[in-house]
Amino acid sequence: MSLAPRLDLRQSQSLVMTPQLQQAIKLLALSNLEIETFIAEEVERNPLLDAGGGDDGPSEPIGDAEDFEPRDGPADASELILGGGEASGEAALDVDLATEAFHHDSASDMIGGLDGSLGLNGASGGASEDGPDLDSLGSGELSLADHLLAQAGSTVAGPDLFIAQHLIDQIDECGYLTVALREIADRLGVPLARVESVLAIIQTFDPTGVGARDLAECLALQAKEADRYDPCMARLIDNLELVARGDLGRLRRICNVDDEDLADMIRELRSYDPKPGCRYGGDPVPAVTPDLFVARRGQGWAVEINAATLPRLLVNRAYYAEVSGGKQDKASKAWLTDMLASANWLVKALDQRQRTIIKVASEIVKQQEGFFLKGVAHLRPLTLRQVADAIEMHESTVSRVTSNKYLSCARGLFELKYFFTSAIQSADGGEAVSAEAVKSAIKALIAAEDPKKILSDDTLVELLNAKGFDIARRTVAKYREAMGIGSSVQRRRQKALEGAG
């Protein structure tokens, strides 16, 4: 065996992930609103792209709804929606990035290095990351800090105003002071008694209860404002843990009151606001915009992309012809050619994205037709692999398509991921049911329980088994906790408190 160095020529095949292919795959995971932001950035970067309508020639709309028949139609319902159109680009998008079969020529070929070169601010980024929130600017809501500073400016002055401003800076969005007074006094170099006196002034500000250091102090401030802070109420507030546990017997003895007085005190306590600062400057909850619409049409279903959130993207070929017809140097000509290629690719990639989304959504509707017809109790167990196998795509592609996307139907607005649930075996050996259907049954049983006869987890298991659900007690407890429903002991105490209040 020779140990001398030598040169060998070898042939091998490898799949090279070009930046454009990486970008096309990444577009699948974006919602319609994120795509709208991305398109706006590309239009600003590329002069050959036009968003909105145009007269540059006919352009076929993307994602128009067509009917399909889940029962009588062909096995692949998406073919009817796509109208038998070409889907040659799906094979390129349908890849698994986790595999080691890809070859990267340089760092720029990696997904992580794509953001800067192609102008995409991350797969999970929304429109709010790229500019100011116009809704919040137009709302004109005053923040809690501004509201308190305005009151401090008209109440205190001089060094006390400086202390008040520093204290207000340490009040969180719920209205609580989050730093110890001793630490603030040491930081400002002032006596602790002076900081305490300024805090006492802040605690008289609106909203009542602001500036408290814990829940008991917050409720006490509101009780004093309502002129209900007598010794009995003080003892009740000092024993909030007993109130939380519903230990009415001990509370009656500690407060030295009868049942009627205790019920009146608890009713008063429940009327107070435990988070007074949340009334001011809270960020508005963003509205969820559906990416897809599903509607009943005849004996089938219509699946449609929400075109209202997707601007129409066109290549301005007239402008390209005008610019390319003039005198150009070599660099300008190469740049113009790159812009045309980029524009053509983007239009094609977005079209393919819409077709892929509709294909996946169509299969979901087909698999979960019982849910759309009869409700959550008829939601079937479904996995990404089942959908991927049915439409002959990779499981990772289906995962990207169903990320950050919402479907609107007659039953409400649902994330596409909602329709993928684990299976619970049937007690009678029949067809398995979905975990969401079991959760719905648990919620219905607890909602209908007798306040005097709270259902334990063991009892819930028996009732679910009678309904045909083969489920263990620990699974019932897990699902109950996931829905935010307390145990039988907690619910019994809650019912007792509600009865007392």
What can you tell me about this protein's structure?
A hairpin with an 8-residue loop joins β10 (423-424) and β11 (433-434). The protein has helices at residues 19-28, 32-45, 78-82, 90-93, 114-118, 134-139, 144-153, 159-169, 181-188, 192-202, 215-225, 231-238, 240-245, 248-255, 259-270, 317-324, 330-367, 369-374, 384-391, 395-401, 435-447, 457-466, 473-482, 488-500, and strands at residues 15-16, 49-51, 67-68, 102-103, 292-297, 300-305, 313-315, 406-409, 412-415, 423-424, 433-434. It is an alpha+beta fold and 501 residues long. The strands form four sheets. Strands 3-6-5-8-9 form a five-stranded mixed sheet.
Structural topology:
Elements: E1 15-16, H1 19-28, H2 32-45, E2 49-51, E3 67-68, H3 78-82, H4 90-93, E4 102-103, H5 114-118, H6 134-139, H7 144-153, H8 159-169, H9 181-188, H10 192-202, H11 215-225, H12 231-238, H13 240-245, H14 248-255, H15 259-270, E5 292-297, E6 300-305, E7 313-315, H16 317-324, H17 330-367, H18 369-374, H19 384-391, H20 395-401, E8 406-409, E9 412-415, E10 423-424, E11 433-434, H21 435-447, H22 457-466, H23 473-482, H24 488-500
Parallel strand pairs: 1-4, 5-8
Antiparallel strand pairs: 2-7, 3-6, 5-6, 8-9, 10-11
* Major sheet characteristics: 5 strands, mixed
What would you call the shape?
extended
Order of strands, main sheet, comes to 3-6-5-8-9
* Structural class designation: alpha+beta
How far the N terminus sits from the C terminus, by CA atoms, comes to 93 Å
The count of helical stretches stands at 24
Question: Keywords for this structure?
Answer:
501 residues, alpha+beta, two-stranded parallel sheet
